[in-house]
Amino acid sequence: KVGWYNAVLQPAFHLPYPDDTLAFVVLSTPSMFDKALKPFVNKEWLKIIRDPVDQCVSHHLSHVKEKFPDQKVDVIFDYEILPSRKPKFLAQTAAHVAGAAYYYQRKDVKHDPWGKKKIYGVCIHPKYGGWFAIRGLLLFPDIQVPFLEQSAPVDCVSTEEKRIELLEQFNFHWQDGRYRDIIEVKEKYSEEQKAYFATPPAERLRLLGLTQEAR
Asked: Which residues contact 79 (CB under 8 A, 6 or more apart)?
């Protein structure tokens, strides 16, 4: 429910819907690369304009909207920002309140070792660890669900030591991706997918077999 999200954030970040409005957080799993992105690029390569992943997600969520012709469906993507430069929604907070992934933050560590350093939080999924992404939010403004019960996310990094290790790796060594394996995972990115996301965006099209001229 939108109210679960709004309840844990300052008013500046609230979503402008009644508290009982139904919302879905959209995640992409490791298999998205082979099952969705590559087929999308192969089919649409002449039309690729900016970011293939963003366009692929947009393409598939537009199909979801088509499945509900009698319903108003609002979509917010993870990369969208307001004129104030604030994100349109805080993806990790949304995933946490929806029960999709646990958002580990500094406040989850009792004995804080970081002093005045800025420490960012990170979501961990019980099945995929850090090998997933939060892609968007689907909102159904005309559907109110007052009796929907909230499910807590799975606390899969439960020890103080592991939480410190997670936040250390994510904040200071995020490039090597070790934080993603803070728990044992059932599925992770393929080597091809790792290479794709490790490549600067301007050079990614070449990895997918596309040239800049095709944009």
From this structure: 54
C-alpha–C-alpha distance, residues 46 and 36, integer Å: 17
- The structure tokens listed for 46 are 């002449």
Q: What's the pLDDT tens digit per position in 151-209?
A: 999 999 999 999 999 999 999 999 899 999 999 999 999 999 999 988 888 788 777 77
**Buried-state track 133-170, b at ≥16 Cβ within 10 A, e below 16:** bbbbbbbbbeebeeeeeeeebbebbeeeeebbebbebb
**Domain spans of the chain, in order of start:** 2-205
Q: What stretches in the chain show pLDDT beneath 50? A: 212-215
- Report the predicted TM-score, pTM, of the whole model to 2 decimal places: 0.91
The helix or strand, by DSSP H or E, that contains position 198, with its residue range, turns out to be helix 191-198
Question: What local confidence, expressed as pLDDT, does residue 44 receive?
Answer: 75
Q: Cβ atoms within 10 A of the Cβ of 28, count?
A: 21
Measured between alpha carbons, how far is 9 from 90 in angstroms, rounded to an integer? 9
CA–CA distance, 95 with 4 (Å, rounded to integer): 11
Q: What does R_g of the chain's alpha carbons equal in angstroms?
A: 18
Tokens of 180: 């993603």
d(CA 125, CA 180) in angstroms, rounded, equals 9
> In sequence order, what are the residues at sequence separation of 6 or more whose Cβ sits closer than 8 angstroms to the Cβ of residue 31?
187
CA 25, CA 162: separation in Å to the nearest integer? 26
How distant, in Å, are the alpha carbons of 26, 51, 95 from that of 201? 22, 8, 25
